[in-house]
Amino acid sequence: MKSDTAPSPPTPARARGLFIGAAFSLMAFYLVGAVFLDGFALDLGSINFPSLLYVIFVAFYMLFGGLAAALLALGTARHWGAQARADAFIAQWNAISERRFLIWTCAAAFGIPLLLRLGLMGGAPLTDDEGAYRFAAELLASGRLWVASPELKLFFDQNFIINDGRMYSAYFLGWPALLAPGVWVGATWIVNPICSALTVPPLFGALRYFAGPVWARAGVLLYLSAPFVQIAAATELSHTSCLMALTWCLWMYLRTRADDSSLRDHAGLALSFAIAFFIRPQSALPIGLPLLVAWVLTLPRLNAGVRRRTVLAFGLPAVTLAALFLGALWAQNGSPFRTGYVRSEQYLIENDFRFTSFRPQDLSTVPGFDFSLIGPAIARTASGMFRLNFDLFGWPSSFAFLLLAMPVLSGRARILWAMTASYLLLNLFQKDWGVDTFGPMHAFELALPILILTIVGAHNLSRWLSGAQAQSPDQASWRWSALSPALLAAAIATAWIGFVPVRLAAVRQIADHLNVALEAPKEANLSAAVVFSPWPFAPPCGGSPNHFVLFRPVNDPDLQADVLWVNHIDIEENRRLMETLPGRTGYVLRWTSECDVELLPLATLSPGDFPPGLERRPAGS
User: Fold this and answer.
1) Which of 155, 158, 368, 403 is the most exposed place for a label (fewest CB within 10 A)?
2) Is there a contact between 617 and 353 (Cβ–Cβ < 8 Å)?
3) CB neighbours of 509 closer than 8 A, spacing ≥ 6?
4) CA 455, CA 606: separation in Å to the nearest integer?
5) Nearest 5°: phi and psi at 492?
6) How many whole angstroms separate alpha carbon 172 and alpha carbon 322?
């Protein structure tokens, strides 16, 4: 007999059952790793196709992590619906003032990478690039673009450093210029966390434009929870500062479209894009190009007087930064149109590929790009997106909400899709999508449109479910409208319970391994010392994942540090160098079979006691 009574609300036991199912799913994930895969110990060390253990790890995570996220989302939605807590939570969420929210989230965006840097990594670098950037920052902090190469310069050759009689970094100077104040205060490691914090206000503004104020706050929390973004901010790489500048660029573009826009917004658009271009032009141009094109298309709608003032406001910072950009290239590389990448490849040939990770077959007409075949280019891009899909947010699928933000569903999101498509198209022929230590770094700036599109998709899902609930309130036994925020919260929680600990464990293993060598002079109480380092600097041992710190630390430009690090060539050549550095004592660094290091006094060694150092990358490696 059919009952006319309304369905009773779900009991808390149903939600508890879903939570228990999610817990068992994650337990199964971890038990598979513990029993069969050494706790999901990652091998890493790839720049395109992911390593085998990484693929196995994400395969199990996609299954069990995906199931856990789904169960956790359903349980959370049922709990909120059954207890009528969704509306109360939203009211409390909205009761937090925007100013207070931004203060706390900016503080978190600063504190999280700082905690990762000092607590997890112990200050260790994760790539050789970091030393090259810091060297450039030290030059700029002292008012120089280069320094004369030292005597016996082969001892000072370094990846990403041009050493052709003048020593300077191969990288663009935008990020070193931002890093220079950190040199002045002796804390370069604090600059990226500051850039991370400065990303929050424009990100919130852009999210509010595309998805409204409530979901804008959720988007900021997603930014804070993204492991790829936060670990990058814990390094001294340039990507975090470029993301900051591009986020301001997007926000300034949106401001230029507002009814209350001013000339400052147009100037801000030009300035933020120019800063991003000065940092990483290969990322800034693909992300910023759709914004600039859209801005130009608005100019004909303005009257002549306003248009002239707008173009002038835009042009002043753009021309100023362009002149500085081209002038720096001219001063360093002999031509305003020759980048450091091009000059670096020329130097590799001149130096016979000594003390570099590159080989002759790695060079190309446009450094970093290979335009020879379309098939491999598509395969590399697909592999990069596969890695980004997991590494960005740490979800079983970081792209899960994107289809819900398609342009046919969200007209405002067209510009975000244009940014994404532009990035993929202009970077299609990249030779690689970046190191795999914590994510595909050459896809990093894609985090901006993907993050906002994710929130747009979640917002759309919430609206549709709320509409369905309103049309058929007696059809549902719990709040469908709570499902979308519950899915977002569940995906974040699952990431930080399942994916992120494995990723952070690999980063910590790499940092601990590197710090064995980096801290060795301090542990030995060395002073006024020269440490002759082998290549590679820290060969994988003791189960440590493969990594991309292949070379010794980069010295300060004037060689004034208490401990200098140089390349080991051979005992006799090492002694020749010591004659040019009076008042210092030489030591040769050697790794032991127990994965520890010894610092052997150079004065006690004879040529037969220590093999010559490796100068070139072995064939096939």
Assistant:
1) 403
2) yes
3) 543, 544, 545
4) 65
5) -65, -45
6) 13
The answer to whether 534 touches 613, Cβ cutoff 8 Å, is: yes
Please provide the DSSP assignment of 43-89 as one string. Answer: ----SSSPPHHHHHHHHHIIIIIHHHHHHHHHHHHHHHHHTT-HHHH
Q: Would you state the structure tokens that stand for residue 1, as one six-digit string?
A: 């007999």
User: Which SS3 state, helix, strand or coil, does residue 148 take?
Assistant: strand
* Res 479: pLDDT: 62
Can you say how many angstroms the Cα of residue 365 is from the centroid of all Cα atoms in its chain? 27
What's the Rg (C-alpha) of the chain?
27
* CA atoms lying within 13 Å on the CB side of residue 347: 25
Residue type at position 569: I
Closest CA to 235 of 179, 157, 168, 275: 179
CB distance 176 to 140 below 8 Å: yes
Digit-coded pLDDT (tens) for 465-486: 877 555 555 544 456 778 899 9
**In the structure encoding, which two tokens stand for residue 24, read together?**
């068992």
Which residues neighbour 569 within 8 Å (Cβ) at sequence distance 6 or greater?
Answer: 154, 155, 532, 612, 613, 615
For residue 200, which phi and psi values (nearest 5 degrees)?
Answer: -65, -50
Largest Cα–Cα distance in the chain?
Answer: 101
Residue 341: Cβ within 10 Å count: 17
Whole-Å CA distances, 104 to 198, 217, 541: 12, 12, 41
Pairwise CA distance, residues 288 & 269, whole Å: 10
pLDDT at 178: 98
Tell me what pLDDT residue 86 has: 63
Tokens coding 483: 């499902």
Give the three-class secondary structure for 529: strand
DSSP 558-612: T--SSEEEEE---HHHHHHHHHTSTT-EEEEEEE-TTS-EEEEEGGG--GGGSPP
What is the distance between the alpha carbons of residues 129 and 147, in angstroms, rounded to a whole number? 19
Q: How far is CA 7 from CA 11, 14, 75, 334, 527, in A?
A: 12, 15, 18, 79, 78
Q: Reduced to 3 states, what is the DSSP secondary structure of residue 167?
A: strand
Bridge-based pairing of strands 529-533 and 585-591 is: parallel
Q: For Cα atoms 195, 198, 204, give the angle at the middle one, nearest 5 degrees.
A: 135
Q: How far apart are CA 51 and CA 65, in angstroms?
A: 20
Assess contact for 266 and 296: CB atoms under 8 A.
Answer: no
Tokens of 13: 């036991």
In the three-class reduction of DSSP (H, G, I as helix; E, B as strand; rest coil), residue 20 is classed as helix
Distance CA 240, CA 308 (A): 34
**DSSP-derived secondary structure letter, 621:** -
Query: Do 62 and 397 meet the contact criterion of CB atoms below 8 Å apart?
Result: yes
Q: What is the pTM of this model?
A: 0.95
The first and second tokens of residue 414, run together, are 């067209």
Average pLDDT of 156-173? 96
**Alpha carbon distance 293, 73 (integer Å):** 40
Buried b / exposed e along 262-271 (16+ C-beta atoms within 10 A)? eeebbbbbbb
Q: Which two tokens stand for residue 27?
A: 């337990």
**For tokens 């709040």, what's the residue?**
479
CA torsion, points 466, 467, 472, 478, in degrees to nearest 10? -10
Average the pLDDT over 38-49 and give the result.
Answer: 94
Is the pLDDT assigned to residue 108 strictly greater than 80? yes
Q: In the structure encoding, which two tokens stand for residue 306, read together?
A: 């306003």
| Distance (Å, whole) CA 224 – CA 201 | 13
How many Å apart are CA 530 and CA 82, to the nearest integer?
68
Give me the mean pLDDT over the 375-404 stretch: 96
